[in-house]
Amino acid sequence: MRRLEKPLDDTIAVFEKCIERIKDQGLKQRLEACKQEIHDASREFDSKVGEAMLHTMQPSNMSNGVTTDEMKKVYTNRMAKKLAPGREYYDKLMSLPLFGKCPLCSQRTVSTLDHHLPKAHYPTLVVSPLNLIPACQDCNKTKSEGIPRYAHEETLHPYYDDVEGFSWLKAKLVDPLCQNSCHC
Ligand SMILES: [Zn+2]
């Protein structure tokens, strides 16, 4: 995994931008009333992810009658879609990896944003930049909708974890023709 610079954009600023063109005033008011819980969820995520404590973050529904589907649509239609009001934030996150290489596999090209904690269980985090990781299609699918139940089930996060200096694999070359016991 490649480390990425942690995005500094404020979750509420992103959320406000995403919902600014909603014409249905009832829906807009219900969404606006959720700002505090969206802010709190992002803060909790930020404080827990680096400590491998995300498994203690409880999945929750939104208040004010806002459904998970409505929040998913805020992301899909108002942030990810081309020309969407929040698309500038989407593009900014997509441009983080050097040469567009997926930070999770370091092999394929970035083509999507992966929700580190999935939308279906954490609607409060659908547009939080800290929860959105640029990734290739394959890595995104592999992670799917699973949520960590224990610390060891938490996956690495490119904004918080740095394993680039860690030696994952070692090899010793043994020449079977060598007569010495030096394993040269
Ligand atoms: Zn990948």
TrEMBL record:
Domain of life per record: Bacteria
Protein name in the entry: HNH endonuclease
Species annotation: Vibrio aerogenes CECT 7868
